[in-house]
Design brief:
repeat; 4-stranded antiparallel sheet; elongated; mainly beta; WD40_rpt; WD40_PAC1
Length: about 450
Amino acid sequence: MYDFQGMNSKLQSFRQLEPFEGHQVRSLSWSPTSDRFLCVTGSAQAKIYDRDGLTLGEFVKGDMYIRDLKNTKGHISGLTGGEWNPKAKETILTSSEDGSIRLWDVSDFKSQKQVIKPKLVRPMRIPVTSCAWDHEGKRIVAGIGDGSIQLWTIKTGWGSRPDIHVEKTHTEDITGVKFSTDGQILLSRSMDSTLKIWDLRRMKTPLKVFEDLPNHYAETNAAFSPDEQLIFTGTSIEKDGDNGGLLCFFDRKRLELVSRVGISPNYSVIRCLWHPRINQVFATVGDKKEGGTHILYDPSISQRGALVCVGRAPRKKSVDDFEVQPVIHNPHALPLFRDQPSRKRQREKILKDPLKSHKPEAPVNGPGFGGRVGTTKGSLLTQYLLKEGGLIKDTWMDEDPREAILKYADAAEKDPKFIAPAYSQTQPKPVFAESDSDNEEK
């Protein structure tokens, strides 16, 4: 939330709110008296805030296990849009992914006034992607997920049956709908990269279709200038495009493109608004990670708003602003004051430590072969074939150690190297012990 009077050229906000953790903010709408605003998020509950950003209440959520949406007390899926009635300060309109539009009374957050279910070809849940009031607060228009636009007039005894129902208006989701002040023109913006202008007196075919307006965001809208001679909308960035985010302005009478204003080279323009009193155009830009707001103004025609704070330089730091940065000692963070770990925890920790618990090494598992554990004798086909082929030889296990040493007796006699020379005088002829088997026989 920003306050133009209290800002300098740094343009810092005075309050930040997170209406519903983890859910994006889909729509904001001021009450007719501008003392409260409606915040619609991706959750199923809309919230009302006052001008200072304090929560006044949130609407109730419905029971998701009830099949008929008429019988639920509130929305059961994420909201897609919402608007405050421009004339009645107690009535609010919301649309949701659960396929319903609901009217609420601000004085009672627990109950809704009306549930409107759009007309569908087959009975199923198709999300309502956008909704809007007309200037008098007498009619409601909604863009439905099946590509249709449906319009209801609020009168005594009215129900869910739409007064105007136009099928297949767009090939993809309708992201924004907007009435003109005189109630004759309707704008519809869609993700199929088009902006369509409709005459409400004959809604069979659009008056004009403006194409090549890329749109990748479910919140992109279209709006009128204060005198309603111009219609404008934002465009999204395309991967292979080099245009950046643009604001495209069209003439309402001639139904042609007047100008294209580049807003951001790297980000898409999502929502736009032309404020009638201060005569400034606001455009919000962003991608999936970050966003910002751009304000277009004319120093000679615009009033207040951004003009108030753009020229106001940030206050220079004076000598009196010096702050001592003291070192804060927190005694409870010192090891001396820490709680001792419990005995049970310590015991469990020691038991897991193999050195402290004197845990013996685990035996080597698996079948052994020839006194060696972990090698298989013939269980593997490869080993068996190698053994049969004579490539694996059992040398040292089946051999008598005495015979293995005597192999080298002749070589040692011819060329004595290490031990034999030491005994050359005392024992010129080495005497080898006879084999055990011979002794046993004797």
